[in-house]
Amino acid sequence: MLLVDKPAGMTSHDVVHAVRSHFRIRKVGHCGTLDPQATGLLMLLTGRATRLSQLLMGSDKTYLGTIRLGTRTSTQDSEGEVLEELPVPELSEDEIKAQMRPFLGDQYQTPPMVSAVKIDGQRLYKLARKGQEVERPQRFIHIYRFDLLEFHRPDELITLVRCTKGTYVRTLAEDLGRALGCGAHLAALRRTNSDPFSVDQAHSLAKLLSAPPEPLGIVPFLIPFHQIRAGLDTIA
To answer: Which end of the chain is more exposed for a tag (fewer CB within 10 A), N or C?
Structure first.
């Protein structure tokens, strides 16, 4: 396993391609996609560790998210077109936290149209580009934590979300904006944990690509197979 601190502006596949090409390794894949503008922990697997992909993708995740109040977008994040702008009322931290609490626990969430979910063999984001909107099956998720870390008045919230796989934090941001009556979108997202691994263990892509461009160049950065299994056993 290779833990990468993904930079903004790259798809998860871009990171895989960069690592594969630089180190001349054919069998490299990622588990747990991050949107292009998101940063943070991206897990890459190589060799026989790829067989653990499903186990690792199923682990719980932790994110730091910046939510901007007052604006709804077509993608629920800062990349989309502005759909609506609403005045932001004077809110207290207690009022915001009160609206965040109902989002904790088991629930169903509808994936956004601009996502990689497949419906009848087609990616939703491809349908969205054609201006189509289709019915999406809801996903069962669990949110363990939805904390307000900072409130930068009048419209910026710094939040922590700990959740199960398949949770869309940008959908959570939009839903919170609706609950607050002013709309919202996700302005920034950083994944800090994908159990049992942390972004503190990850390497920047720039550092990885400064290593010798050969298969052995990747070795100092790898977490061996037995350590991955041991880590998974701690959360089983």
So the answer is: C
Give residue-wise pLDDT tens across range 81-105. Answer: 999 999 999 999 999 999 999 999 9
- Phi first, then psi, for residue 106 (nearest 5°) are -70, 140
Q: Are 182 and 70 in contact (CB under 8 A)?
A: yes
Residues annotated catalytic, as ranges:
35
Helix or strand or coil: residue 100?
Answer: helix
**Cis-peptide into 196, omega within 30 deg:** yes
Q: Are 206 and 186 in contact (CB under 8 A)?
A: no
Q: CA 181, CA 161: separation in Å to the nearest integer?
A: 21
Please enumerate in sequence order all residues whose Cβ is within 8 A of that of 207, keeping only pairs 6 or more positions apart, or say none.
none
Over the stretch 155-186, which tens digit does the pLDDT of each residue have? 999 999 999 998 999 999 999 999 999 999 99
What CA–CA distance (Å, rounded) separates 65 from 88?
19
Pair (70, 50) in one structural domain: no
- Mean pLDDT to the nearest integer, 15-23: 95
Query: Are residues 163 and 69 located together in one domain of the fold?
Result: yes
Q: Is 68 exposed, middle or buried (CB count within 10 Å of its CB: 0-12, 13-18, 19+)?
A: buried
